[in-house]
Amino acid sequence: MADLTLTTFEWVPEPPRGFVRDLRVRWALEEAALPYRVVGVPGDRGPEHLAHQPFGQVPWLIDGDLSIFESGAILLHLGELSAKLMPSDPRGRSEVTKWVFAALNSVEMASLPWTMLKFMGHANDTPAWKFVDDFLKIRLKHLEPVLAKREWLAGSFCVADILMSDVLRVVDSQGGLAHSPACRDYVARATSRPAFAKAHADQLAHFAAADKARS
Amino acid sequence: MADLTLTTFEWVPEPPRGFVRDLRVRWALEEAALPYRVVGVPGDRGPEHLAHQPFGQVPWLIDGDLSIFESGAILLHLGELSAKLMPSDPRGRSEVTKWVFAALNSVEMASLPWTMLKFMGHANDTPAWKFVDDFLKIRLKHLEPVLAKREWLAGSFCVADILMSDVLRVVDSQGGLAHSPACRDYVARATSRPAFAKAHADQLAHFAAADKARS
Prior knowledge:
58% helix
C-alpha cells in the first residue's frame, strides 16, 4: 500500500491559484482514488526544500522512502500504482510515456514562456516575442489534427492527458487556443472530469485556508 | 534481443550539425553497446513522418513493433534494456527518471528558447529576451551547487546525464555557462566519454554523406 505525501507551497498569491503544479498530482491521485495527504512548504526555499526539489519549485511527492520531484516523474510513478492512470502492458506504457514527454518537452517548452510573457504584458512587437509566439503556434498546429482524431492521447484517459490538458488549459486561460478548436475541446473534456474538479477545488481551498491563518 | 532502428533527418544544413537530437539516442546506444541502424527521413514532414513523430521533429526509434518519439521517452526505453543506462531497482530507476524530467522540463524548457534567440541574434534589450535570459539564469543557479557536489546526477552515469549534459552543451556553445563552472566541468566530463565522441562523429558523417549524395 502506497503511503503518499504531496508537498506544495503553503501559500501563494492570487494569480497562480488553480494553476500551481501540485494540481497535476492531486488530479492523478483523485483519478486513481489513492489516499494521500498534502503538506505546505514556506516560500523561502530553504535547504530542506532544495533537498527535495533542487530548483526550489513545487510539487514533490514522498512515497515511503522515495522522494520524487518533477510532475512528469511523479505522474509516471503514480501510473505504475494504478491502471486507471497507465496500462501495465509494455505497449500501453510506451504510448503513455511518449505523450507524457510530448506534453512537457514539445508543448510546454513552448507554452510556458508564451504564457509568462503574456501574463507579464510582454507580448508585443519584438523579435523575441515573435519567436516565442511562433514556437507555440507551430506546436499547436501539429497537435490540433492529433486531438481532432482521438478522445485521449493514448487510447484511454491516462497521466499524459492530465499533463497535456493542464499545459493547454494555461494557454487557453490567456486566449491562446482561439484557432485550435480540437485542443480547446480536449481541455473542456479533460477538465469536466470529477477528479479535476475535486483537485482544483482542493488547491483553491488549501491556499484560502493559508490566507485565514495569516490574517 | 532488441531490433533497433533510429530515424533522423537525411540531411540538415551546417549550423545544427552535431546538435540534432538523434545524438542523444546514438550516445545512449553506444554507451550500452546495443546494435542499431540509422535511417534518414526527408525534411518535408510528410504523413509517414507525422505518423511516427506528430510534431514533425526527429528522432524516433523503432524497437520491434514499438515506435517511440521524444528523446526522453526513447532514453527511458533504452534504460530498461541496459543497466549501463539505468539501474533496474525501483529506487535507482526513480532517481534517474526524475533527473530525466529535470533535464527536459526544468532546464531545457529555459535553455532552448534562450539558445534559439541567441542564435537568431535576438538576445537584445527587450523585456521578452530579459525574461528568457533570467529564466535560464535561475535554473543554472540552482543546478550549479548540485553539480558541484556530484560527478553524475543519479549516482553513476545514466541516461539523465546524457540528456542534461546535451542540454547544457548547447548553452555552453553560445557562451551561457560562463558563470557556471560546475555545469561547464560536467559538460566536459560527459562529452569526454568515448560513446559521445563516437555518436558525435557518426552524426557529422551521416550528414556529410548526404552532402555528397546531393552534389
